[in-house]
Amino acid sequence: MLLRLSTQTLVISLLLLGAGCRDREVTAYRIPKEPAPAASAPKLAAPTSQQLPDGHPPIGGGDAAAAPARAPDGSAMGALPEGSVSKNNALTWTAPAHWQQKAPGSVRKGSYAITGEGNATGDLSITAFPGDTGGLHANVNRWRGQIGLGPVGNAEVEAGIEHIDMNGLHADFVDLTGPNGIRLLGAIVPHERETWFFKLTGPDALLAKERAAFREFINTIKVR
To answer: Across the chain, where does the E strand assignment appear?
Structure first.
């Protein structure tokens, strides 16, 4: 009798144990992967903007000075040389009476304001730098860029130059008009080991009236 009871107890225990296992549910958990740490953004140098006087040469030895822009024929577009402006006041001139003289400042050798109808104003700057500042063609292309024109080759630059001889000096005169209606009358005058720039900029209509006066002004340039 005792053996029978033990056998029954064992069978019942096994049946209860099996039922308990079947009642249990197996649950699988999907653990999300941790996101990879974001790459730190590169630190950018703070932008700088140096406002230089008109005609000032580039400061420092950056890429712009080392690799100036090129015209279609491969010639440099007239990045001015590094270094100080000319300390020489070798040239003199006589400005038209209606031009208003302004203080030249630290870079300009001379500065004038020209006014016209409707409050139109023009600016005449006179600067000088050591050396040839990249050469005639490069400097004309630099002027073209200042009024929104693209660079051109040496042959086209030459075609737009008028050569003027006055008082023992030579001037290369150009008359340029940009797509925005800004006009530039300029004369480049080499003297000894320097290059002088006489540049008048302003609205097209105003400079059309001042062109003859500017030409007469160029003829007054002479050695002091």
So the answer is: 91-92, 100-101, 110-115, 121-130, 162-166, 169-177, 182-191, 194-203, 222-223
Q: Which amino acid is at 89?
A: N
Question: What are the extents of the domains in the chain?
Answer: 88-223
CB 137 within 8 A of CB 154: yes
With contact defined as beta carbons under 8 Å apart, do 194 and 84 qualify?
no
Topology given in CATH for the domain delimited by 88-223: Protein Transport Mog1p; Chain A (3.40.1000)
CA angle 137, 139, 142 (to 5 degrees): 115
pTM for this prediction: 0.66
Note the Cα 16 to chain centre separation in Å. Answer: 88
Q: pLDDT higher for 88 or 147? A: 147
